[in-house]
Amino acid sequence: MRAFSIQSLMRQPCRLCHAPTLPGRSLCQQCQDALPHLEHACPCCALPLDERTPPGSLCGECLADPPAFDRARVPFRYREPLNHLVSRFKYHRGLSDGRLLGELLAEHTAGTRVSVELLLPMPLHPARLRGRGFNQAAELARVVSPACGIPWRSNLLTRQKQGASQREADRKTRLRNVRSAFRCQARDLPSRVAIIDDVITTGATARAAAACLKKAGVDWVEIWAVARTPRPGDT
Ligand SMILES: [Zn+2]
Ligand SMILES: [Zn+2]
Questions:
Q1: Residues flanking ion ligand 1, Cβ below 5 Å
Q2: How far is the CA of 20 from the centre of ligand 1 (A)?
Q3: Helix, strand, coil tally for the chain in percent (to 5)
Q4: Across-strand partners of 220?
């Protein structure tokens, strides 16, 4: 019979390439280093900026129409291998991929000066939740919360109606679609919260959810998401 050491039993193979990992890690060092870190981005909404834009500059949209959230913390660009992990997680119930994404998000937010008191997963519309069987943002919060030592609640921010396909709608239509989509339990909210989401795409949903929290009296709202897409047409 083949003998296994305790260490080898505790180590999972790398989630991306199956190479050996360091104890307690889900990725090997090489895959970890190759992740598409989002380094040059709008300090408010995390939109990737082009190389000519000076570091620390706000993007055009945040300048012209500042969002209700105060800042977005996003470790990665939405490209390989993050897009594969996110789609396995969301559309193929890849809950271990979700755990890895949660760990990566927790690592990023733990490295910043975190001062929020509560995490709120971005709610799914009830019909979409029934179809998918789980809310991906709640699964991320389940991992991020203990790692950061911040509690999470899934019933304080809720979604009332299905947004139209956000990619195809123009900006005005997107904002109108999502503006009235959220409800929150104001009396149970602390003054500083972070909304957890998987990917920020247009930012319209994050804007609307944050506006709902601000209207309910929350002072500081952050958006914590695993990845950010570029503006349509940018790379
Ligand atoms: Zn690997
Ligand atoms: Zn911005």
A1: 14, 16-17, 19, 28, 31
A2: 8
A3: 35, 15, 50
A4: 192
